[in-house]
Each structure stands twice: as structure tokens, then as C-alpha cells.
Design brief:
By secondary structure, the protein is mainly alpha-helical. The protein has helices spanning 21-39, 44-49, 55-83, 85-106, 113-137, 144-173, 175-194, 210-245, 253-270, 272-275, 281-287, 289-298, 305-333, 339-368, 370-395. The chain is globular, with a radius of gyration of 20 Å.
């Protein structure tokens, strides 16, 4: 891959209708490596089970990533506005490398996993802010939901590859192989970022107070934030406890689910989701999460690895359809003078659910078992989905939500760096 700086837009130049292809490839490559660093650790809970950790303690360890991810993501938008997207992302790679070193020390001192997860989460949030905020600010409002979906697409690809790579590394070098890959991935991300231009905000850029932007976006996004939180809460149940829940199926079970989930998400994201990301059809896309709830409930009941693959495929299709649709609705409600804080708030809602979910599900699993926990998570996301869709339908007076109240886009604070 060649990085030629003279092929990039000069400082101050804006691409309203699209992105420079090489820049898009660069950020999608960053998204791929960032996601792989997360999915390659899908076997970490199973490793900690071998250290005789309780499910609740494992839940706190897994949730530690999302606790700092949440707080850092809220602030990253402001940091990116002040110092530039690329510098903030580079700071994140430094933290990510530190997290990778921390994981390696876990091989000797398991309790250091809490610190490693925290630093890893902070670094991931800052890298995400640097990449995704640029993409969102560089396209028209009506394309922002699709761009957010495209940025997440490598995450689904690596979800399919990550568990397979993790099992391969564990079989060859133990968990140390997966921990090393995290360090290497962040080092490569840093190299890619250093090839990119790093202008600061243009002179005269208006900077609105952080709290003012937070309040204006929170009032417009309340329902979406609650729904995103619920999804993150339920999503975390398989993210943290799939490996121990299906360990009886032997090697390859988690990989089968990951391949199915990633394949379903990629298929839907590249095809069906683009037809359901506008107008009233967005409610149909979001309603597909009811099938996601069914898949969650059935995961611990699978008797063969291929059944996990089928459930993963159906769940991945639902995830790939719902997310761009919800992001499109959210993007229409961002305050035009506070787009960065709106993006941070929207993404942080699901992160909060993913932080609180693992210890909650772990506590319940210790008492009632994984089967009941996955069932409760499935019922919860199905119920929240039905409630959100009905609320959005009534919000438009029982008609279509093709036209959602939105603000006229403002270029006063848009920054492309």
C-alpha cells in the first residue's frame, strides 16, 4: 500500500460529496486493525476461567475496556476539534501499544488484565474518534449513516476472522500470541496515521462550549441513546460469555459463530441495508433486531458448531441492517453546531451498555447459569426494539418517519484533517 502525501487534499480543502479514495482506504485499514485487536481477545474470558476466576470477576475485567472507552469517547470529539483528528488518533495508538504490553504481563500476573483492558479501551476510543469523526464530517448529512456503517464494516469482517486467528494463535503460542497481535496492530495503525497530513483546525473555527453541545444533543437523542444502551447491554452477553457458554462444543465453536456473524453482517451491509437506511424503511431495519433477540436466546442451546454458525449468520444480518438505519436517524438529530459531541454521545451510549453488561450478566450467570442469562438478554433486546419502533412510529403521528426533524447542516465547525 502506497501513501503519497501529494495525492491528499490540501489543508482547508473540503470534499462535500465524497472522500479521497486513498484516505478512505487508510481509515478502513485502521478500522480493520482496530477491530481485529478486539475480536482476537474473544477467548480471553475462557483463559480467565482457567485461572479459576468467577464469571462476575471476568465480567468486570471485560467491562473495564468499555468503562474507559465510554469516558474517553465522550471527550475525544472535543479533543479532535481542538488538536486535530490525526493527532488524537496517534495518542490513542500509544495507549494501545501500552495496553498490548500490559496483556503480555497478564501471562505472569493475571490481575493486570484490568489495567491492560482500561488502557486498551482508552486507546481504541481515541483512534476511533480520529478516524470516524473525519469521515462523518467529510460527507453530506444524508450520507452520514451510510458512512458510519461502512466504517464499521471491517469490524464484522474481523469478527469472522478474529476467533479463528485467536484459536490458531492459542494452539501455537498460547494466549501470548493474541496479546502480541494487539501490540503489533496498534504499532501498524500508528505507522499508517503518521503518513497522513495533520493540520489543526482552520483559523477562525468556532468552538462551542462542551456542556452546551452535550445538552443540545442529549435532548434530541434521548430515545436513541436509551435504545443504543440496551443494545450494548445485550450485545455484551455473547461478547463476554460466548466462549465459556459453548465450551462443551470444543475447539472451533466460537470461530463458527464469528464466521457466521461476520458473514451475515457483511452481506447485509453491502446489500440490503442500503435499501433500508432512508425514510420509513429504517423502522423495518431496526425491527429486525427482534430476530437478534431470538438468536441470543438460542446460543447456549446449540448442540453443534454449525448451529452456532447459522445463529451467528442470522444475528449478523440483523446487526448489519439495524445499525446504519439507527445511525441515519441519529445523524439527522445532531445539532449542527455540535456534530462532534453528538457523535461522541451517540457512540458512547452503546459503550455504556457494554461496560455495565458483563458484570451484570456475570453475576447472574454465577447464580442461574448461562442459559437463562442469554434468554434474558434476548427477551430484553426484543422488547426494547419493539418499544423503540412503536415510539418512533407514534413520533410521526402514526405516519412515516421519512422526514425526521433535523437541522440544516452547518459548515462553521466542520473540520477535515
Amino acid at each position: 500500500m502506497c501513501w503519497a502525501l501529494d495525492a491528499w487534499p490540501v489543508e482547508g480543502e473540503k470534499h462535500v460529496s465524497g472522500l479521497h479514495p486513498s484516505k478512505l482506504v487508510a481509515y478502513l485499514s485502521i478500522s480493520t486493525l482496530l477491530s481485529l485487536s478486539m475480536w482476537v481477545l474473544l477467548l480471553l474470558p475462557d483463559y480467565l476461567v482457567g485461572k479459576n476466576w468467577s464469571s462476575q470477576k471476568i465480567g468486570w475485567a471485560m467491562g473495564a475496556f468499555f468503562s474507559v472507552y465510554l469516558m474517553t469517547q465522550i471527550l475525544s470529539g472535543r479533543l479532535a476539534d481542538r488538536y486535530g483528528n490525526v493527532p488524537v488518533a496517534l495518542w490513542g495508538t500509544a495507549l494501545g501499544c501500552l495496553g498490548g504490553l500490559g496483556y503480555l504481563l497478564v501471562l505472569w500476573w493475571p490481575n493486570l488484565v484490568f489495567g491492560a483492558r482500561i488502557v486498551h479501551g482508552a486507546g481504541s476510543a481515541m483512534v476511533t474518534a480520529g478516524a470516524l469523526f473525519h469521515l462523518v464530517q467529510a460527507v453530506p448529512q444524508e450520507l452520514r449513516g451510510r458512512v458510519i456503517g461502512y466504517f464499521g464494516l471491517p469490524g464484522f469482517v474481523t469478527l469472522g476472522l478474529g476467533p479463528f486467528v485467536a484459536e490458531l494463535l492459542r494452539a501455537s503460542w498460547g494466549m501470548g500470541g493474541a496479546f502480541t497481535l494487539v501490540l503489533v496492530n496498534f504499532a501498524v495503525i500508528a505507522w499508517v496515521l503518521r503518513q497522513l497530513p495533520r493540520p489543526l483546525a482552520a483559523p477562525g473555527t468556532r468552538r462551542e462550549p462542551f456542556l452546551e453541545g452535550f445538552r443540545s444533543n442529549f435532548s434530541a437523542l434521548q430515545g436513541i441513546l436509551v435504545f443504543s444502551f440496551a443494545f450494548g447491554l445485550c450485545y455484551s452477553v455473547w461478547l463476554s460469555f460466548l466462549a465459556p457458554a459453548v465450551s462443551r462444543l470444543g475447539p472451533g465453536a466460537v470461530s463458527a459463530f464469528g464466521l457466521g456473524y461476520g458473514g451475515g453482517a457483511v452481506v447485509s451491509r453491502l446489500g440490503l441495508s442500503q435499501r433500508l437506511e432512508t425514510g420509513a424503511r429504517r423502522l423495518v431495519a431496526i425491527a429486525s433486531l427482534c430476530s437478534y433477540g431470538v438468536c441470543l436466546a438460542l446460543l447456549p442451546q446449540a448442540r453443534h458448531s454449525w448451529e452456532l454458525g447459522v445463529l451467528g449468520f442470522v444475528g449478523g444480518i440483523s446487526h448489519g441492517i439495524y445499525y446504519p438505519a439507527l445511525s441515519s436517524i441519529a445523524a439527522e438529530r445532531f445539532h449542527p453546531l455540535h456534530v462532534g459531541s453528538g457523535m461522541s454521545l451517540y457512540m458512547s451510549a452503546s459503550s455504556l451498555g457494554m461496560f455495565l453488561g458483563p458484570p451484570l450478566w456475570g453475576l447472574l450467570a454465577d447464580r442461574i447459569g448461562f442459559g437463562w442469562v442469554f434468554l434474558q438478554a434476548g427477551l430484553l433486546i426484543a422488547g426494547c426494539t419493539a418499544g423503540f419502533v412503536i415510539a418512533e412510529w407514534k413520533r410521526r403521528g402514526g405516519g412515516t418517519i421519512a422526514h425526521v426533524e433535523s437541522h440544516e447542516p452547518s459548515h462553521a465547525v466542520d473540520q477535515v484533517d
